[in-house]
Amino acid sequence: MDLQKYLLRIGFVGPAEPSLDVLRSVHTCHLLSVPFEDLTVHSNGRVQLDLPLLFDKIVNRRRGGFCFENNGLFSWLLSKMGFQVTLISGQVKNSVTSRYGPPFDHLILMVTIEDRRWLSDVGFGVPGFSTPLSLEHSGPQEQGHRVYRIRKERDMHFLEWQQEENRGTDGDWTEIYKFTLDPRCLEDFTEMCQYHQSSPSSIFFCKSLCTVLKPGGRITYIGHRLITATFPNEETGRVFETTTRELKDEEIPGILEQEFGIVLNSLLIPKDEVITPPPVVY
């Protein structure tokens, strides 16, 4: 771990101290700098959960990764900065199949600062939150035009949002993923890391994708599409909107470099197949 090199990679400037303000800052910086992507799976590679390898990929080669990679490496960074970090397991509710993934489907972080717990996640896609969420209460937590909440049922926690709206407590809440606070280690996610690279029930196997948060929006590549989302802004009167551009094979490498800063060493095979519902209901 080269702490300063990692912080430079995500554009963080300031004291590397274990405070809430610093956690919020490095969390957002990470999302604005490191894409959430599965391009290794679709360019003749395999993801391995080895921290030095992940550091080389994300920091040295300026790539991104999916949750096990981004959150796994981010947990190492936070630990080196002096934060108390716990790896926890989540199960994502697929927006297409409406089913939860298996246990260890998603790697999330719990960060404890002065006896208060925060949910941190720099390894999720479009519904992801930009700054850590408090685990100490179940009420709405606003972030820009969005609102989230963490609902608890016995030992299970449910992360929910109102998509690209904020209608207050009585709005329609949609589940993103569920999780417990049981501590895990990176090796616990090895089997599911392989699952997501080989199962037709995984979005990462079925679709080549790359997405990154931008100031005022988000840009996403999937298959042969480039989707640009613009967030609403009350001051300018701008509303939420998305535009989609169809891409030819020969355009994709240039788009990945221009929009995400990614240059692949192997040929990418674009993919955008239908996800098969998992045979087991979790």
Could you walk me through the main structural features you see in this protein, from its secondary elements to its overall organization?
The structure is a single chain. With 282 residues, the chain is of the alpha+beta class. The protein has a domain at 199-260. It is built from seven helices and 13 strands. The strands form two sheets. Strands 5-4-3-2-9-8-7-6 form an eight-stranded antiparallel sheet, covered by helices on one side. Helix 3 (51-60) packs across helix 4. The chain is globular, with a radius of gyration of 18 Å.
Helical amount: 10-25%
Provide the spatial order of strands within the biggest beta sheet.
Answer: 5-4-3-2-9-8-7-6
Unreliable stretches, pLDDT < 50, 5 or more residues? none
What does the main sheet amount to?
8 strands, antiparallel
Protein name: arylamine N-acetyltransferase
GO molecular function: arylamine N-acetyltransferase activity
EC number: 2.3.1.5
Keywords: Acyltransferase, Transferase
